[in-house]
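Quick one: structure for this chain?
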Amino acid sequence: MKEQKGMDRRSFLKGVAITGVGAAALSVVGCAPSSSTGASPQSSAGVEYPGMTDADDFKNSVVEIDPITDFADEKTYDIVVVGAGTSGVPAALTALEEGASVACLQKEDKAISQGGSSTGIVLDASTELGLQQFKQAYREKCSWRLNHDLLDTWVNHSGETILWMNERTTAAGYPPYLAASEEVTYENDDSKILKITNRFGPKPENNGNMILKLADYAQQQGVEMFYSTPGVQLIADESGAVTGVVGKSKEGYIKFNANKAVILATGDYQNNTSMVEKFSPDLAGFERKQTNKTGDGILMSMLVGGHLVPVNHSRQMHDIDSGPMTDEPFLAVDENGERFMNEQIAMDHWNAEIRFHESPGNFCQIFDSNYVDQVTAWGGRPTSKEEIENFIPGLLDEPKNVIPSLIDTHRCDTLDELAEELGIPADNLKKSVERYNELVESGVDTDFGKEAKYLAPISEAPFYGIHKHIRITAICGGIAVDGNYQVVDDNNQPIPGLYAVGFGAGDLCGAVDWSTYVTGMSNGSCMNSGRIAALHAVKGTLEPTNPVKWDDYFEKYGAGSPLGGVFH
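Got it. Here's what it folds into:
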């Protein structure tokens, strides 16, 4: 039984209200659970909200539930993409290259995306056994809670997408600064995969500049971009098939008819407070890293019969910007300067330890000048004392490979000075360090049980502290889709003409926290989902007309190429 339901097809069709400007437009109507007053919540037009949503969800979104019938303009395309980001721009460009006429609507006044790495698996250089064993390992990392069809789609097509992205960003004038491949062997040579990664950046440029360039390139090729024009309501015919979307511009509402499909690429719902409290309540106290991610595509989909994925909504709660060595088990103290956890916990699970803190998301890592030897002994990769200076605010005029506004690492000669820099009580910090050193000397962590091999004293000045700030990077559970990224109804049947991509769609990972088993899978899966949806919407197949082949790619961009490729 689904935990989060939308409308079934029968209830949906009963509620259809047809209005007309050109092709028939559908006002969104659904079945909602009873409210505390015994009535279903309704808009001013008497339209019911779909199951599991309410008026507050729409107050936090640009989506409009009352029927829109007055249009300033009407346009028709084969494909209409809503959202110009990591998923939407590849979707629009792919659809164009496959012969479709394409419009792309964007809520902001420019294309926006986050992240600098994107990864895929190259089928031509992987074995069938290796692919199966990779999928098994990934499923285990995700606690077996994922859409297997979406995993198959990523495994089977992500490599070609990454190669295609390399080609297109190069054509757009913004190639990866690093293109690297990595072969992973499981049992033997008959069981291996080849991963390929594009890195766009480096920081602070990150992925944002790449998507700006790619959006400009797509527009030059023929995609019609409509900035500052959010999608606010889907359009459907009497059968329930989606036939377009309403955009809202400064001049008024524009009706965008879609002969083939609408692809929703609007991101997650982290900035919709009502939806977070409802669907991810343990994240409600954390700050958000993104803006304008208000679940617009999710809400529009629910209003025409879609539903949210019924498993836990995985999340990305990272801070790789304040300082380096994120997974090393340094002493951790809270904002009161007191130790609060066993530090043997990966970064992507820190949020679980600090969600009940007075200031959720904030804590400090403490270590001393012997950290290079300590981390080396742990089997980690220590950042050199020269490189770590890039993370100290105000120390260097031009810090490298960091986002200056987010760095928060400090180095001081005394713990009192360090506490002042970190903004925590000095007496408590000194007591915590004193107690920790006692445990180190005894060789047994009787306070939290950290393994003895990770116990290292904090005694040699200068002392280091990293003020961690864990915020919501992405909520990775969206509207339910099939392996082609078509939105499905309560009976898991595709809703004709409607696709959802990126983190507004599906459950590629259903674990509590997004799996970091594959570095770059986050952006890679977003790019791949947009490309896959466009291919299927235009052609009915997931195979591009002119796929980028690994052998051709390697010959062109292999080691020693102008791209600086590193291949092995």
